[in-house]
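Quick one, tokens below:
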């Protein structure tokens, strides 16, 4: 079972009251993922229940008593649950206490509502807010801004390494007006080139190209660094065979056909070589018989597969990139 499936089963075993208390400690994306799996569980076999209990016991069994090794326990559980990168951000927010309460509230809001809330703020403040949100949510909000503003925001985000006290004070002031936020003056590492690249991964291809081109005009070296960290469909050719096979099991045939219509031969051969001979032949036939498709459909299918790949990488199911470098 996947970790998110184990979490869903465990919450069902805990019962409504206890499960609701646990969910209060999770972010909106985690709650959504677990909620989706809970609704799809159906009948749970005794074997699955045993697997979940054993996994939970293994994760908690090394703790001799409460308060001993709590930080390490928290880190390991979060890494297993949401992946190394997201866990690092969550741990930092936990250590910061209540100073991000207002920002966390944003994560539960509709992207359009967030855009209306922040669209008139200073570009630096908007960049900080977007860097804090999950990349897919931030990407939706970014595309709502005029094209001339997007590259400026990505530039600011890519050159941002931490929030200084004055900037955090201004940001908390905004959150106070809307969500009764906390004005704690701790400095938080946020933003940076990786954050900018992660958000651009979720932006539509046409808008993504416009933003990158504008950044190249302003700062070619920075644009190159951002592109180096972006994970695009062609990077799937760098997957090891085990990871590619795991990814293909999660991708629908229709999405795969559409995505491969716009892919180069190297990617196609990578896919074919990780399927059974019969399945590969059927896929080749489908690609040949499929008529012309819109470029927008191809790009949407590729984005969908990339989203699945990133999710699987975050949960540790696959490794993106080569053994020496991971794209997460």
């Amino acid at each position: 079972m996947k970790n998110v499936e184990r979490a869903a089963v465990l919450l069902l075993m805990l019962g409504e009251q206890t499960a609701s208390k646990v969910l209060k400690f999770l972010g909106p994306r985690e709650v959504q993922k677990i909620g989706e799996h809970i609704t799809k569980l159906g009948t749970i076999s005794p074997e699955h229940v045993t697997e979940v209990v054993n996994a939970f016991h293994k994760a908690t069994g090394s703790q001799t008593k409460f308060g001993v090794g709590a930080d390490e326990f928290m880190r390991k559980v979060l890494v297993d649950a949401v992946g190394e990168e997201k866990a690092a951000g969550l741990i930092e927010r936990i250590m910061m206490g209540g100073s991000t309460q207002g920002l966390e509230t944003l994560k539960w809001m509709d992207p359009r509502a967030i855009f209306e809330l922040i669209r008139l703020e200073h570009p630096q403040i908007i960049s900080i807010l977007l860097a804090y949100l999950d990349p897919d949510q931030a990407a939706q909000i970014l595309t709502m801004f005029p094209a001339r503003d997007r590259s400026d925001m990505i530039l600011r985000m890519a050159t941002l390494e931490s929030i200084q006290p004055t900037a955090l004070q201004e940001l908390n002031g905004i959150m106070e007006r809307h969500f009764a936020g906390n004005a704690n003056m701790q400095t938080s590492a946020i933003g940076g080139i990786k954050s900018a690249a992660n958000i651009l991964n979720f932006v539509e291809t046409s808008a993504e190209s416009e933003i990158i081109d504008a950044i190249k005009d302003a700062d070619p070296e920075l644009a190159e660094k951002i592109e180096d960290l972006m994970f695009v469909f062609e990077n799937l050719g760098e997957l090891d065979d085990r990871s590619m096979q795991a990814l293909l099991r999660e991708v629908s045939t229709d999405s795969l056909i559409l995505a491969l219509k716009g892919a180069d031969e190297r990617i196609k051969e990578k896919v074919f070589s990780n399927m059974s001979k019969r399945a590969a032949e059927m896929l080749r036939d489908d690609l040949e018989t499929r008529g012309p498709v819109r470029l927008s459909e191809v790009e949407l299918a590729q984005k969908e597969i990339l989203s699945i790949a990133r999710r699987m990488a975050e949960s540790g199911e696959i490794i993106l990139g080569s053994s020496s470098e991971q794209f997460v």
